[in-house]
């Protein structure tokens, strides 16, 4: 079990090591190294998902800026594992390239079957689900309701910071 302690409350997650072994190993590596501590949920789309795990706020002495964290190499996409992008599932975020996921993840707010694996083509790869929220979905839903805007060049950013303060692996 993993606990994401946010400034809105705790979100408890369980991982499916059997169906997404490499994705879980990758996620746990970041958790155990403290990578996610003080990172943001930087993208919120109510009725879709909340995304975090790749950016932190930094004070450069003049202003507060959002900074992308350095990650390890991308991992292979395990979206073909049979796990679905349903309410409360956690999946890896990625670019348009199927095997580009590093540290960013999202929690589904709805059943998003259009994100599921349908084939080994660029369009069909889908987004790899590797676990689910087992407690704290009320916190996830509260975060989902935060107003958003364009900040630091990013759309769908919350108007007030949503911070993963620390991560605990149990």
TrEMBL record:
Classification of source organism: Bacteria, Pseudomonadati, Pseudomonadota, Gammaproteobacteria, Vibrionales
Entry's family note: Belongs to the cyclophilin-type PPIase family.
Full protein name: Peptidyl-prolyl cis-trans isomerase
UniProt keyword annotation of Isomerase present: yes
GO MF term list: peptidyl-prolyl cis-trans isomerase activity
Annotated EC: 5.2.1.8
Domain PPIase cyclophilin-type positions: 1-169
Function: PPIases accelerate the folding of proteins. It catalyzes the cis-trans isomerization of proline imidic peptide bonds in oligopeptides.
PANTHER family cross-referenced by the UniProt entry: PEPTIDYL-PROLYL CIS-TRANS ISOMERASE CYP38, CHLOROPLASTIC
Catalytic activity entry: [protein]-peptidylproline (omega=180) = [protein]-peptidylproline (omega=0)
UniProt xrefs under CDD domains: cyclophilin_EcCYP_like
GO biological process: protein folding
Enzyme class: isomerase
Record keywords: Isomerase, Rotamase
């Amino acid at each position: 079990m993993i606990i994401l302690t946010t400034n809105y409350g705790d979100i408890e997650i369980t991982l499916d090591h059997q169906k997404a072994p490499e994705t879980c190993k990758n996620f746990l590596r970041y958790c155990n190294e403290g990578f996610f501590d003080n990172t943001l949920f930087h993208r919120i789309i109510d009725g879709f998902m909340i995304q975090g795990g790749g950016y932190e706020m930094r004070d450069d002495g003049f202003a507060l800026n959002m900074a992308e964290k350095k990650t390890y190499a991308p991992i292979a996409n395990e979206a073909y594992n049979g796990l679905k992008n349903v309410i409360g599932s956690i999946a890896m975020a990625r670019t348009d390239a199927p095997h580009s996921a590093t540290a960013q993840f999202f929690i589904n707010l709805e059943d998003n079957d259009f994100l599921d694996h349908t084939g080994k083509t660029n369009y069909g790869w889908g987004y790899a689900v590797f676990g689910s929220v087992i407690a704290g979905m009320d916190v996830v839903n509260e975060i989902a309701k935060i107003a958003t805007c364009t900040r630091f060049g990013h759309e769908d950013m919350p108007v007030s910071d949503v911070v993963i303060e620390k991560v605990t692996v149990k």
